[in-house]
Structures are given as C-alpha cells and as structure tokens.
Amino acid sequence: MSATLLVYAQYNALIYFLVYIMRIMTLKNANMHPITNIERLATELRKQRRARNISQQALSEQAKVARRTITNAESAGNIGLKELCRIVNALGCELALRPRDAVAYEELSTIFKDEG
Description:
Blueprint: H1 3-32, H2 37-51, H3 56-63, H4 67-74, H5 81-90, H6 108-111
Helix pairs in contact: 3-4, 3-5
C-alpha cells in the first residue's frame, strides 16, 4: 500500500470518528435542553419523580404500570395515554393543555421581576 493511500485511509477514519463524536454530543445536548413537547414532558416527569424522592419502581407500583413504562415516559418513549395519566396522577400532578404563547401563572414572577 502506498504512503498516499495510507494517509488517505487514516484521514477517512479520523473524519468518521469525528462525525461519530459530534452525533453523540448532539444527542447529549438534546437531552440536556429538551426541544419538543414530548421531551419537555419526559423531563418534567423525571424532575417531579426525583423531587418526591420516588424510585421508578415505587412510582410504577403506585401508578399500577410496568416499571418499563416509567422508563419509556422519562426518556420520551412511547406510552399510552392512560398510562401517562396514571403516572401523572401518582405524582400528584395534573395534565393541562394551553396555547404555546400563553403565559403560565408560575412564569409571571419571572416576567415582572424588578431589575433594580
């Protein structure tokens, strides 16, 4: 194999490796900053469960769903609407729909805070 081909092969391997790393970093960043409604819901479910110091297993028993359903819900996987409602109820929360541009009551304090 000539030296030129060897350098070219190494260059291609490096490019594939860098693309792979960039994909991993993109996935990690996507999980850190939820974009879709499903990702925001999954993040909020996880946050609510952790705030109550409840394990996935304990929540699944309270909600009467499989532990895998909790895992799927918290990772933006597919679960049924009934299962979602059971999980939310077991967390002592409720689901609400609102227009995207509507301001929630909880957000008002950040909108009208003093900047002085």
